[in-house]
């Protein structure tokens, strides 16, 4: 169990490090589309990993953490690019850290109100994240949980 937590934490650390070094250049829409494609690939890869795992519950939890992390970082990257292209897109300029903070507050539905999208494009991006959050929490979580159930029946284990 400790090894699984360590692997999951290491994977998230690698994702965050990759996010931190991404260039702040490019078209936000193109990066968003590439990011969404990446999220879809990660979902497929993780569901497949759960369906083959000897410990499907642990793998399922890891899958949900990784998918959510990738999705939030894709959103944060989009916000950084929007802020770079248009300094007035948000109520303040977003660097990597503040964009990640904002993406997490939107994902968690906290909405402190300290960072606010001001332009139509920024509001569209945030709305897309909110819709994606709902799909992720509802659809992807259900998909992973079902993969865990099926795999637990296959391996005859009930302890995960």
Question: What this model shows, in words?
Answer:
The protein is mainly α and 160 residues long. Helices cover 77% and strands 0% of the residues. It contains five helices and no strands. The longest helix is centred in the C-terminal third of the chain and has 36 residues, at 120-155.
In total, how many beta strands? 0
Helical residue percent? Answer: over 70%
Order of helices and strands: HHHHH
- In angstroms, what is the radius of gyration? 17 Å
Number of helices: 5
What distance separates the N and C termini? 10 Å
Q: Helix- and strand-based class?
A: mainly alpha
Poorly predicted runs:
none
List keywords for this structure.
160 residues; mainly alpha
In short:
The chain is mostly helical and 160 residues long. It is 77% helix and 0% strand.
Topology of this structure?
Elements: H1 2-21, H2 28-52, H3 56-85, H4 96-107, H5 120-155
Helix pairs in contact: 1-3, 2-3, 2-5, 3-4, 3-5
């Amino acid at each position: 169990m400790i090894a699984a937590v360590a692997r999951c934490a290491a994977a998230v650390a690698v994702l965050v490090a990759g996010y931190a070094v991404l260039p702040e250049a490019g078209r936000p829409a193109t990066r968003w589309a590439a990011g969404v494609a990446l999220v879809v690939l990660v979902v497929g890869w993780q569901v497949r990993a759960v369906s083959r795992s000897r410990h499907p519950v642990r793998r399922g939890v890891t899958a949900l953490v990784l998918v959510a992390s990738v999705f939030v970082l894709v959103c944060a990257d989009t916000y950084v690019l929007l802020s770079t292209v248009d300094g007035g897109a948000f109520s303040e300029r977003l660097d990597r850290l503040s964009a990640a903070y904002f993406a997490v507050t939107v994902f968690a539905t906290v909405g402190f109100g300290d960072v606010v999208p001001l332009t139509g494009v920024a509001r569209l991006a945030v709305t897309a994240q909110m819709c994606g959050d709902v799909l992720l929490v509802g659809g992807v979580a259900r998909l992973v949980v079902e993969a865990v159930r099926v795999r637990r029946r296959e391996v005859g284990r009930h302890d995960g």
